[in-house]
Request: fold
Amino acid sequence: MVLELLPRVQKPDLQSYCYPIVLAHTSFKGLEVGLLLGAISGSLFSLYKTRRITKKNLAKFMNFGVFGGILFVDLMAYSRLSSSENSKNQSRAYRIIRNSKQNSMDNFTIGGMLIGHLAFRSLPIAKVMLLKSYVGGLLGFGLGAIYIRF
Reply:
């Protein structure tokens, strides 16, 4: 992710650009959560309304999920940053940049989102395909969790 390109400092006290670092990190997390919640709610709504999953409903809910997820998580992060001392914000930004496993997981997730996007755009939507995408997503999440653990 972009945060890996920023210079690393030796002590948290020297960390600059606290707000952009933390907000970039939380924006990415809001994107992940929004996509997941949008896909689940869009699938459930589509099944409830039309008894089948339509690409249009799924895309609409995922778009709202992305926007809402990023906005909600960034507002929470900004509120937290505004109410904290500068030394805590520097420490938070320092730990985000130094956490190499989290940065690797973010890169892994970006690749998975790209593959998922291409699959969503190119393959026809069917219940079996959606089930496979949920199983694939859980498998990717599990592999990422194992990767982070070790």
